[in-house]
Amino acid sequence: MGLGDVTRAGVLAAVEECQYLGRENFRRRYGFGRAMAYELVLDENRYDSKAIAGVAHLYAVGDLLPADGFSGGARTVAHRLRALGFTVEDGSALTYGPQQVPPQLVLQPRGGARDRGPQNFARSVRQGIPIADIKDVLGGHADALATLYPDGIVRLWGSTPTTRVNNEKAKALRNRRVGDDVLFYAENHFIARARILHLFNSLPVAQAVWGTDEDDATWEHIMALGDVEEFPTRVPAVPVLTSLNVPAPLRSLTLRSAEDYRRVVQLFPQSRQQATAPPPATFPDASSGLTSSELLDRIGALNTHRHPGNRAPSRHQPLALLWAVSRIAAGKPRLAPWSCFRAEVSPLLAEFGLSGSKVTPEYPFWHLKGSDLWEVHGIESDASFMPQPGTFNKVQPVAGLTHAAAELLQNPLTRLEAVAKLYSTYLDDVDQRELLSRVGLAGYATADGLLDDSQDGRGQEASDEKRATGPTGRRESTSSRLIRDAAIANRVKELHGHACQVCGTRLQYKHSPYSEAAHIRGLGSPHDGPDELQNLLCLCPNHHVLFDGLEIYIDVDGVVRQAHGDEPLGHLRRHAGHHIDEAYLRYHRTLCELNGLTTE
Questions:
Q1: What are the beta bridge partners of residue 189?
Q2: Residue 121 belongs to what H/E stretch?
């Protein structure tokens, strides 16, 4: 494999990812340096040719070409990119500036007195919020904001969630990005401008900064902003909105493209900010604004057609999404070329699709775009109709989950909930264990998952049914095992005095107390739970087996229940020194739901 395997679709996918992450973050993520000579030029933007080619190879064939694995000179990367129809220029003489992607335009209503808009603007945008005041609720965003705001004062603005999928607000939350310009609107005028330095979602931060509105919602989709330029003379909004084809008055967060922005930029005072990108944040948070609940809502609302004479929804899109989720669980690239998709998804459609349905992988490959969880590169996105299958074979487009969806699915709980949503909505009569095994998610059959030393959970057995004589034979094998912290396991047992937290039994074995430390979210794949005290229960052997086998679970009130029939077995026994993380219990309950068990 080499540069000859790089496809045009792979390059376009890599360019899109570079735009999403920012040029510096893109290079850092994949281990590339800045282009010293040749740059890819596309739509007036410049990209590091070697980094783009290396990532394009990842999306074309599944393997990243590392920075030290090939040359970036004219006869290699530049030659290949030009052969694919791209423009490559010698950028060695250029003066580098960090701004590579022109800003989009975010139109942001400030809100009126009812929403405390003027007060919130004055406090959290004009004056700013001391990071020290909200440090306790910032979590992983604290370091990023400390880097962006050396003076310790952060300027924040937020948006409440929306239950809609494709309205203006949803699109703006989904597609705005770091480096975009925000125009604040109030009383039929634009009053100020600021640049987005960081994007993140945080309910605790929003509540700490702004509280809640009359509907008990808060502004949890948060922008961290650069210096705010308040216009000396307010800019009338109607000419701007008319040019942007936005109804007046502005009522909702709205996003317009960089090209649209260029059309109206002359209507505003000249920006004091240099045309530079913001300092890079510690990590590029999910700037699309997509939340886990919105992800699940979109999964449950796929536009699946129904076959004549069969009222059940087609399984093509759900099966393709399940395949895509399994790639995230396996650490594979979120995007894959058409040849890979066709080879791996077609057998799933044939075996698990509706009876009598045709095996047409091109349909989910293309039409999943309508879910806003999927993207396709290499074929014009504005095509009104699905291309002919021959076009897919010729062009080898690349498709898969969007950045935002893939980032959310990195979370094991969100990933499990997504799989459960697919099953409960579209696949409830499909052989669950067989399908999950086929896509590499067999570990969901038990709470402990697939452990490294026994991928199928069973030992190898001799196939000869003849009665054995003499000692049992042995077979040499090599295995790897998860490393567990014995001190943590002993701690949970000692805290509970070796009494089972379900039944209270204290067993004695060889004159010593005996109990078992059970992980709530299993350590095995695909659960990948942590080995920590908050993820452990002290159980007797019987209830350990039942818990791992998804025969019992703990409800939101701490009641232990039988999964079949939902009969209560009593409250989980607690100890003040043993805090149990509710997120792990929720994970276990969701796992029971996935396995067709009543859990709530």
A1: 186, 236
A2: none
Residue type, 520: I
With a cut of 60, say whether residue 287 has pLDDT above it. no
- Say if CB 367 and CB 386 are below 8 A apart: yes
**Buried (b) or exposed (e) across 14-44, using 16+ Cβ within 10 A?**
bbbbbbbbbbbbbbbebebeebebbbbebee
Phi and psi for 17 in degrees, rounded to 5?
-70, -35
Question: Hey, is 515 helix, strand or coil?
Answer: coil
Q: What is the DSSP string of 425-483?
A: HH-TTS-HHHHHHHTT-GGGGSSS-BBTTBTTSS-------SPP-SSPP----------
Which residues fall within 8 angstroms of residue 293, CB to CB, at 6 or more apart? none
DSSP state of 342: H
On whether the CB atoms of residues 161 and 220 are closer than 8 A, the answer is: yes
- Amino acid of residue 392: F
Give the H or E element holding residue 255: strand 254-256
HSE, CB side, 13 Å, CA atoms: give it for residue 427: 30
Q: Are 218 and 228 in contact (CB under 8 A)?
A: no
Q: Give dist(CA 190, CA 176) in Å, integer.
A: 19
Query: CA-to-CA distance for 431 and 236, rounded, in angstroms?
Result: 61
| Nearest-angstrom CA–CA distance, 530 and 548 | 16
Is residue 539 helix, strand or coil? strand
Read off the pLDDT band of 275 (50, 70, 90). Answer: very low
SS (H, E, C) 393-434: HHHCCEEEECHHHHHHHCCHHHHHHHHHHHHHHHCCCCCHHH
- pLDDT tens, 201-243? 898 999 999 998 877 889 999 999 998 999 989 999 999 999 9
Beta-strand pair 105-109/181-186: parallel
3-state DSSP call for residue 329? helix
Q: Residue 490 is encoded by which pair of tokens? A: 């002993």
Give the tens place of pLDDT for each residue, 38-97: 889 998 888 999 999 999 999 988 888 887 766 555 568 888 999 999 999 876 544 444
Helix and strand element counts for the chain (H, E): 22, 21
Asked if 54 contacts 66 with a C-beta cutoff of 8 angstroms, the reply is yes
Query: What are the distances in angstroms from CA 341 to CA 31, 323, 364, 378, 422?
Result: 27, 9, 10, 15, 19
Please state, in angstroms and as integers, the Cα–Cα distance from residue 475 to each residue in 10, 453, 460, 469, following that order: 46, 15, 10, 17
- The closest of 455, 373, 417 to 599, measured between CA atoms, is 417
Do β-strands 552-554 and 507-509 pair in parallel, antiparallel, or remain unpaired? Answer: unpaired
Rounded CA-CA distance 278/280 in Å is: 6
